[in-house]
Amino acid sequence: IKPLSGSNKNIYPTGLVQHVDRGTLETCLHIIVLSLSV
């Protein structure tokens, strides 16, 4: 179930994850790559 409303998006964890998805994944990938490189 995905809320269409922007307000509900902030309430539901799924919406929050979907919003911070890119930033979090990018940060995690960068950290992992740096860790593996070192």
Main sheet makeup? none
DSSP helical segment count: 2
Low-confidence parts = none
Shape type = rod-shaped
> pLDDT average, as an integer?
69
Number of strands: 0
State the end-to-end CA separation. 41 Å
Query: What share of the residues lie within helices?
Result: over 70%
What is the H-and-E element order? HH
Using the CA coordinates, give the radius of gyration: 14 Å
Detailed description of the structure:
0% of the residues are buried. This protein is 82% helix and 0% strand. The mean pLDDT is 69. It is built from two helices and no strands. The protein has 38 residues and is mainly alpha-helical.
Write a concise synopsis of the structure shown.
The chain has 2 helices and no strands. The protein is an all-alpha fold.
